Amino acid sequence: PGPLRYGAAPGLCTKGGFTKYRSRRGRGAPSRSSTRNSRPNSARTCSPGLPTVADEQMNCGRLPCISQTRSNRRNTLAMVAAKAVLEHLKTEGPALQENLNQRVAAFAAELNNWFEKERVPMQLRHFGSLFRFESFGQYDLALAPIEMDLFFLLLLYRGIYTWERRICFFSTVHSDADMAQVITAVRECIQELRSGGFSFESSPPVTSDALQSDSLLPASSAQKRLFVLSQMESGEVPYHLTGSILMDGQLDKDRLTAAFRTLFHRHESLRTAFEIQQDQICQRVFDTVEVSIEFARIEADAAEDFARGMIRPFDLHSPPLARIGLAEIAPNRHLMIFDMYHMIGDGISGILLVQELIRLYMGENLPPVSGQYRDYVQWEQSYLNSKTCTTDKTYWQRRLDRTVPLNLPLDFPRPDKQQFHGRVLRHRWTEQDTRQFKALAARLSTTPYMLMLSVYTVLLHRLSGQTDILVGTTTSGRLTPSFESIVGMFANTLVVRLFPEADLPFDRFVLDVTQHCLKDFSHQGIPFETLVETVQAPRDIRRNVLFDTLYVYENAQQRSLQLPGM
Asked: Do 526 and 210 contact (CB within 8 A), yes or no?
């Protein structure tokens, strides 16, 4: 029936390049009568029997459509169309796609040059004939800025549709005039936004000398993720690290204050704030910060209220991102609260700070620190450009291929946006329970960590009925000994994929969990943010990316403290 024309209609970027038309009922399909009589996008299906193609389907002004007959035989029209495509590709050869790729590259270069000239906080990323609009800085799509929603809506008014993930493509049907139409539409949308009162501009350029100064440093991958989360509704407070110490005995408040001031001077992370420079999230280390302790006198039954009152939002631009509270319950009984934001520390950092605080309070002179968090940032950047990172990416692409989300039996509908409300349920084991658990782990030739993860996964399996389950878990992220005594945000998140089955013996499942975890942890250097990008995990604002439950097993032996006279 003539030369085959395929792809999206000129001037229209679509998700699939063609319109899908289902003739099966039960999934939004038309009735039998409408299937016989309607002609969606110029294709018509005759039922029963073989489909026919109207001559007007070859009109390039319409969308080609593959229709489905009600016959149980294979769809002849689909087979004919597939054969025509293959013959066309064979006839044209590699030059067909190569020419299109060159045209798309020129299209992207023209728009990116204009973005840079006009200081538009956007880039056009492309690969082959695919391209995507990416915003950055305060207009990052992850922050859901209204300017980006308006931009894509204005494009739609001009006949250019981009699906949810903002990935588009050109086909061999699209002409140079089509590409020029898109470029013109993008420019008009930006100008209309700005004329409507939206600045939609990127920050002025920052010199390389400023970025390499002693005070302004790049943020680590984990810090960038937390910074983005902090901009979400109710997204800042849930990422506080708060610890409390109940102290019995005579306390010297002046010595305690002096010890804290030494700690803040000793560790750069405690003097760090965050800002956006050159559309990049950066951390600024200040030479000095004001260190003070919030004192109060409370009754014993008000301790919980005092602790909650210490957990307040931080201004991420103003250090310190930590605060100390000390409440006197009785003359020789005090409650100390230490609250810091997760971007400057993790659980191990908290243990290090308490240990050093005690030694300083006792009058010890601590040895110089082995390094600062900036050393880790430099190490991470080197890792991301290394062959090891490439190997880790390949491993995780295979490991997390074709995953499915965990569907737990909730007792209420999932909210439209992810929320951070919840409760804490506590359960304490007896010494006998602990001994029996450790004995079981030894008998199964595994660790308490692996055994508890196995039990937890079995619980998720029974609740969901799924045999393919993703569980998030944490690692220290301190992959070299030089980082062990540094205060900062090192903790990383990994995703463990496990396959519980009802007929699998539990001891065999524990062995599988152990083997999977050992392999996964041998590739734990990849930052979670890079992992998500590598496996191209789908985003859903209603839930966490990749996993919905997090398993944390901590060694708390170092948290038992003893001071002379207290």
From this structure: no
d(CA 60, CA 4): 9
466 falls in which pLDDT band (50, 70, 90)? very high
Round to whole Å and give the CA distance between 183 and 114. Answer: 10
Instruction: Read off the DSSP letter of residue 331.
Output: T
Contact 348, 476 (CB under 8 A): yes
Q: In a 3-state reduction of DSSP, which class is residue 325?
A: strand
- Whether 250 and 332 have beta carbons less than 8 Å apart is answered as yes
Which tokens in the block code for residue 333?
A: 């009984």
Angle 512-513-517 from CA coordinates, rounded to 5°: 120
**Residue with structure tokens 């004995």?**
439
Calculate what percentage of the chain has a pLDDT beyond 90. 55
Helix (H, G, I), strand (E, B) or coil at 386: coil
Q: What's the pLDDT tens digit per position in 313-367?
A: 999 999 999 999 999 999 999 999 999 999 999 999 999 999 999 999 999 988 8
Question: pLDDT tens-digit profile of 8-53?
Answer: 333 333 333 333 333 333 333 334 333 334 333 333 333 333 333 3
Straight-line distance from the first to the last Cα atom of the chain, in angstroms, rounded to the nearest whole number: 93
User: CB within 8 A of 434, min separation 6: which ones?
Assistant: none
pLDDT at position 492 is 94
With b meaning 16 or more CB within 10 Å and e meaning fewer, what string describes 375-384?
Answer: bbbebbeebb
**Contacts of 126 by beta carbon, 8 Å cutoff, 6+ apart:** 104, 105, 107, 108, 132
- Quickly tell me which residue has 């769809």 as its tokens: 75
DSSP for 445-508 reads TS-HHHHHHHHHHHHHHHHH--SSEEEEEEE----SGGGTT--S---EEEEEEE---TTS-HHH
Question: What is the spatial order of strands in the sheet that 469-475 belongs to?
Answer: 492-498, 469-475, 550-551
Whether the CA torsion 246, 249, 252, 255 is positive or negative: it is negative
Q: Across the chain, what does the average pLDDT equal?
A: 82
- Burial degree of 335 (CB within 10 A; 0-12, 13-18, 19+): buried
